[in-house]
Amino acid sequence: MAKKARKAAGGTPATVALTAAGTEFTVHAYEHDPSSASYGEEAAEALGVPPGRVFKTLVADVDGELTVAVVPVAGQLDLKALASAVGGKRAAMADPAAAERTTGYVRGGISPLGQRKRLRTVLDASAADHATICVSAGRRGLEVELSPSDLAELTSAVLAPIGRA
C-alpha cells in the first residue's frame, strides 16, 4: 500500500506536491495583512518582486466546469480569452465557496498546486517571459517560486494569453 505524502510542519498540499514531484522551488513567507485589498499585490510588495512575476490563482466557471486561471497580479483575467483557451463559450468567476470547497484552499491562498480536486488549468502566456514566477503556496502569506515550465507540467496547464493589463 502506497504511503500518502504528509505535510511537514508549516507545509501545505502545494509544497507537499512539489516535494513529491522532486521539483525545485523556493518558499517565501511574509506577514499577511488582513486589511490588504489585494492578496497578490500584497505578496509582490512584501517579497520585493515585480508584480509581473507574481501570479494569482483564480477559479472560474467555464460552461459549467470549474477552471483555474493563473495570471499576473498586475493585471486582470480576460474571461473570454480563458473560455477560448479551453474550447469553451462562456466564462464567469466561480462562486467563492465552490472554489474553496473544490480546491481545499481559502480565498487569497488558493494555489494551482495540490488542490483537493485537480481542475483544468490555464497559465497566462506571459509566465514564459520569466525564469521563475511566484504563486500561492496554499495559504495567505506564503508564496512558492518555481519555473513556469515546472508549474505548467505539474498542473497540466495550457499556456494562453488570458491576462490583460
Descriptive notes:
This protein is 25% helix and 28% strand. The chain has 165 residues and is α+β, with helices and mostly antiparallel strands. The strands form three sheets. The protein has a five-stranded mixed β-sheet. A three-stranded antiparallel β-sheet has the order 1-8-7. Strand 2 (55-62) and strand 3 (65-72) form a beta hairpin.
Task: Give the percentage of residues in beta strands.
Answer: 25-35%
Overall geometry: globular
Low-confidence stretches: 1-9
The average pLDDT value, as a whole number, equals 91
Q: How does the helix and strand content classify structurally?
A: alpha+beta
Layout of helices and strands:
Layout: H1 13-21, E1 26-29, H2 39-47, E2 55-62, E3 65-72, E4 76-77, H3 79-85, E5 91-93, H4 96-103, E6 120-124, E7 133-139, E8 142-146, H5 148-155, E9 158-160, E10 163-164
Parallel strand pairs: 3-6, 6-9
Antiparallel strand pairs: 1-8, 2-3, 2-5, 4-10, 7-8
Quick overview of this protein structure:
The protein has 165 residues and is of the alpha+beta class. It has five helices and ten strands.
Features:
alpha+beta; 25% helix; disordered N terminus
